[in-house]
Amino acid sequence: MDTEYRTKTGWLCLDFANTMDWHASENPVESLNKYADLIEWSAKRGIISGDAKDVLLRRSEEKPVEAQAVLEKAREIRENIYQILSDTVHGKPIKIADLRGFNRVLAGTLAHSRLAPDERGLRWAWDSHPDKLDSVIWPVVKSAVDLMTSGATKRVGQCADEKGCGWLFWDSSRNRSRRWCDMKDCGNRAKVRRFYAKSK
């Protein structure tokens, strides 16, 4: 399993939380509809190699019930991460149910973690389980722990789109003034709405 990840937001856990489109709306759109979707997402983010992707897909075909259970667990942990960070962004108390759900998966994840030698000393690593169907979730959980315990959550924002985009993003602006997931998308729609409102 790789340890260098390709993220859109700078944090693997934020990218994972955003695998549900229109998350804050009344009609969210699921992008992880089957286990293969989870594997495809993981491969694009560099969590797994092409060879590991093939191994996991074959394994999922051999064990479809287990693969479905992993998919459901992935969706649950995504919701825990999303709700915890969303509440944090808006200064709301974190719900005990979300924290309990996250900690349950965290406990299982830590059982597969270890320290490994590195040219600079030691580094965080994972047990070598190329056919472990839930192995793709482990780095996401680690990313969430790193973010939630670093104080860096003050840089996490949530798209303010009125239709309920709800995407989480990393706000690197100097005064943390970013409001949209993407200025070309939700931000542009907001500008258009303001323009028409003024014109009326």
What layout of secondary structure does this protein have?
Layout: H1 12-17, E1 20-21, E2 29-30, H2 35-44, H3 50-62, H4 64-89, H5 96-110, E3 113-118, E4 121-126, H6 138-148, E5 156-158, E6 168-170, H7 186-199
Antiparallel strand pairs: 1-2, 3-4, 5-6
Structure overview:
This protein is mostly helical. It has a single domain, classed as Orthogonal Bundle (Jann2411-like fold). 48% of the residues lie in helices and 11% in strands. The chain has seven helices and six strands. It has helices spanning 12-17, 35-44, 50-62, 64-89, 96-110, 138-148, 186-199, and strands at residues 20-21, 29-30, 113-118, 121-126, 156-158, 168-170. The strands form three sheets. It has a two-stranded antiparallel sheet with strand order 1-2. A hairpin with a 7-residue loop joins strand 1 and strand 2. It is globular and about 45 Å long. The model is unreliable at 190-199 (pLDDT under 50).
Concise synopsis of the structure shown:
The protein is mainly alpha-helical.
The number of E-state strands comes to 6
Shape: globular
- Calculate the mean pLDDT score and round it: 88
Which strand order does the major sheet show?
1-2
Unreliable spans: 190-199
CATH architecture: Orthogonal Bundle
Query: Can you give the helix content as a percent range?
Result: 40-55%
Amino-to-carboxy terminus distance: 56 Å
Properties at a glance:
single chain; 200 residues; mainly alpha; Jann2411-like fold; two-stranded antiparallel sheet; two-stranded antiparallel ribbon; 7 helices; 11% strand; globular
